[in-house]
Amino acid sequence: MGLSNWIDTLTKGKSKGKSDSTTNNGTILINHDLERGYEAALMIQSIELEHYNDRPVRPELELRLPKGMQAQLLRRFRAALQVCLESMHRLEPIRGQLAGQELRQLSLIETVVTRYDSKRSVLPSLSRTPELLPRSLLGAVDQVRRQLDPEAEASVLAGFRRRRDSTLVALRILLLLILVPLLITQLSRTFVVSPLVDRFAPHQSFLGYAKPHLEERAVEELRVYQAELEFDALLNKKALPSREEIQEKLSERAQELKLKADKGSTHAVKNVISDLFGLMSFVLVCLLGQRDIQVLKGFIDELIYGLSDSAKAFAIILFTDVFVGFHSPEGWTVLLNGVADHLGLPAQDNFIMLFIATFPVVLATIFKYWIFRYLNRVSPSSVATLRNMNGGG
């Protein structure tokens, strides 16, 4: 009897595991389709904005581009439109399961697909055809119809389960991306890299860094040590140590500083090798969890775009002030000095100044381009709030 119960429990556990795995796969596929369709819709909108003055794409129009570039542009447009059509075909039956940012993404895909619907016209017109009723009113009527649908409750529950599974998948891959490289780095350093380096470093010169900066630091410490000996003798009203005594004590101190420099050099080698193990584990997690990373990307997008306009503007100002603002050079200097010390390299002031003069500028340019290209289209009210909070700049 106990054996039968144990077998039944094991069978139920396996079936539940298979059910959860199937649900997770379905969640990942839905998020993948939604993300692909949304990116394709954004690409079509960017083509319209850059080349057709924010009007529908018309293949028969001659653009001020070489024919080869125009043909490539139209191929990109047709491929993106096909992706939107496929995504819309897969996502339309489960519209009731979507909410928040997912519904906004689906709405954008639907807008693009409707604009280029072949059933309405062979080619889209230059001006958008006025509709008989406002689209917002039609959307409200459609929402009431979906709420009165007998299957609305099941659809809402399925949507809740899918969003819950999506959140769990996103948190799981996020923890894996953070914890796996850290654990691999620490474990490899403790149990593999450190014993091997400590064993072979005294006999293999290539395992030690060229350490002129460590030698300069040791010479400075030796000079300070000699001054401390003389100061201690004067402070205690003793006779100054003889030349032989000073030389003997300096020789002992020099041996200690040499061992310290050698240890610092092998310490840097251990850091580099263990960091390589951590990097390889991070790349491996990214390769094995590509679909989960797509779910994580959608989760982060929903989290960011779900913020209020003031919260978005506050986060943007905080990010820009920390990394590219007036006080960012001091932070970059501390960060670069820490990285150089971790790798056992000398901190070059010229390189640090050049990095501070170029990298924050490039970062600010990329950030402004992202605001102009994406945020201005997805959430224009956030951009207006950002300008007001930034003093109208």
What does this structure look like?
The protein has 393 residues and is mainly α.
Please sum up the structure shown.
The chain is an all-alpha fold.
Q: pLDDT under 50 segments (min length 5)? A: 1-16, 119-128
Mean model confidence by pLDDT: 77
Shape: elongated
Element pattern in H and E: HHHHHHHHHHHH
Major sheet: size, sense and barrel closure?
none
Number of strands: 0
Strand content: under 5%
The residue fraction in helices comes out at over 70%
Number of helix segments? 12
Instruction: Estimate nothing, just give the exact number of structural domains.
Output: 3
If you compute it from the alpha carbons, what radius of gyration comes out, rounded to the nearest whole angstrom?
Answer: 32 Å
Structural class: mainly alpha
| C-alpha end-to-end distance | 77 Å
List keywords for this structure.
single chain, 393 residues, mainly alpha
Topology:
Layout: H1 2-51, H2 67-91, H3 101-115, H4 135-147, H5 152-200, H6 212-235, H7 243-288, H8 290-305, H9 309-324, H10 328-343, H11 349-378, H12 380-389
